[in-house]
Amino acid sequence: MRQGGAAIVLAMAVVSVAAIAATAIMLTQSTWSRQIELGADHRQARVLVPAAVDWARRLLSDDRRSGSVDHLGEPWALRLPPTAIENGTVAGFIEDQQGLFNLNNVVRAGQVSPLHLEQLRRLLTILDLSPALADAVADWIDADGAARGAGGAEDPYYLELESPTLAANQALVAVDELAAVRGFDTRVMARVRPFVTALPRATAVNVNTAPPEVVAAIVDGLDLDTARALLAERDKAYFRTTEDFSSRVPRGLIVPMEAITVSSDYFMVTLGVTSGEAQARGKALLAREDTGWPVIVWRKYQ
Prior knowledge:
Pantoate--beta-alanine Ligase, Chain: A,domain 2, two-stranded parallel sheet, Ribonucleotide Reductase Protein R1, domain 1
């Protein structure tokens, strides 16, 4: 009976989120329609994508005002099913980027962070990839020109490629940039993409939204099966504080408290819009501040 009740509540929440989204987007569409004349379906679809991003920003802003703990049971985490709007549909979802490993954590103020470099090595090992790939990431981001270990790579390596380039020596803006880093071929990119992100500042991992692979990488000595069991308990009762998480970790393991959180500031919104026969897609990284409207770090509309 309890499970049935939860399913009803979840269904009601999805319907509510969809209704709010459709209303917000239609209101924005109506306003913009008065300002410009849409000449074709594809133009209208492209206009609706940023309107849908604004809906996501409003949802995240309201969520921050309602509480500081972020978990997968909140309205923002519900996927918006294809929802009817005037002459089309809108669908999308919001993902917490602080539930992933922030690759830019590996380098702090131009210097490699041993703690975060080791965490990345553990994540790569968990994913059945070479931990030496972490050295290539560190070299790509750090400010010096000295290659780290056998897996590292600096300018001399990249200048000998068929299409010569230089190491970026700066933080990644998006995960796609990893494709230029030594060792990150198509297979490796496909394997790591679900577990990593690139954020504009150092961030802690939200243990309420992180997958077990990331949690196991953060806590030294925590094996993947135990991490999965820990997060199965999280699904029943989310972590209210970092101390709550630490208390549920097996005895003898040390949790790096500075590396975890139960609150998030960075979210990725992915959207798809149809208008008549036309389609448009959009993706935007949002940064939620303590007060005010979440800002768009970057966006990509198609």
